Amino acid sequence: MKKQEPRISFYNQISTNKWKSFFLILIVFMVFIVLGAVIGLALGPDYFTLIMIAAIIISIIYVWVGYYYSADIALASVNAKPADRRLHKGFYDSVEGLTLASGMPMPKLYVMDSSEINAFASGRDPKNAVICVTSGALERLDKQELEGVLGHELSHVANYDIRFMTLVAVLVGMIAIVSEIFLRSLWFSSGNRDDDSKGNAIFMVIGIILAILAPIVVQLVQLAVSRKREYMADASAVKFIRSPTGLIGALKKIEKEHVPDQEKQKINKAVAPLFISDPFKRKIQGLFSTHPPIEKRIEILERM
């Protein structure tokens, strides 16, 4: 007789994944500090200051564009159109019901032309949020399943996931920029070094190793944060709707469907992490995945 798995509280699931996300952010921040300290010891504080100023300026521009225009960029990239209240009445009714029950403001609704079942949310905060669903989701999901998907997307909005992931992207981007500038600067540095420079050779070697490995490590951490936020949105959706049944049904349909190559080509890989499931349906999953395995998500939801 198979041993029954213990039940999972969605409150515990939300709390656990929230703490794991912050812990992963802390790892990225520590990598940034260590990389900066080693480069400073290798090249001197003045040179390091110049690198940091350049990285901060580039990151601020990136943040400003990404933070304020992330929703517009995402919608434009998939050619989404505003939802029509008359044609997409079930879509509107479901979102209005969920927002009224949760006390959230009504997001702007969009539909993208795609036969696959998928959806995403974007926007810097609940007042500026958008939810986009595929035409396939509206056609092939029943009312309960659609509400499960919409509850998941509203959870991303309520949890400020776009803001959180923007912060992660900034830290990861700064590490990549600092590493790139440091490595490129070595090509232009003079081969003649004084005694002090020779004494810092050990830090130079460590700096080179860190500059190569740090962007890879923090990118893996960024992907891990993305997967944790998906688990948290699943649990938050159960909290919104008070039932995991609809989301389980939707994920099972997503798991079974085959996405044609022409459908995959409609989506920019940069916005793929926003969707409720990986729109490219990559077979290899693990450390390099933006989403956790669907079967694992279903397993956890079935225990709630």
Can you walk through the features of this model?
- Helix 1 (10-43) packs antiparallel against helix 2.
- The chain has helices at 10-43, 45-77, 89-102, 135-140, 143-158, 161-188, 195-199, 201-241, 245-256, 261-264, 294-302; strands spanning 81-82, 108-112, 119-122, 130-134.
- 66% of the residues lie in helices and 5% in strands.
- With 304 residues, the protein is mainly alpha-helical.
- The model has no long low-confidence stretch (mean pLDDT 81).
- It starts with 9 loop residues before the first helix and ends with a helix.
- It has one domain.
Q: How is the main sheet built?
A: 4 strands, mixed
**Strand composition percent:** 5-15%
Structural class: mainly alpha
Question: How far is it from the N-terminal to the C-terminal residue, by CA?
Answer: 21 Å
Number of domains: 1
Average residue-wise pLDDT: 81
Radius of gyration: 22 Å
From the spread of the alpha carbons, the general shape counts as: elongated
Low-confidence stretches: none
The tally of helices reads: 11
Strand order of the largest sheet: 1-2-4-3
Helix content: 55-70%
- This entry's quaternary arrangement is single chain
SSE order in H/E notation? HHEHEEEHHHHHHHH
Number of DSSP strands?
Answer: 4
Compact description:
The protein has 304 residues and is mainly α. The chain has eleven helices and four strands; from the N terminus they run H-H-E-H-E-E-E-H-H-H-H-H-H-H-H.
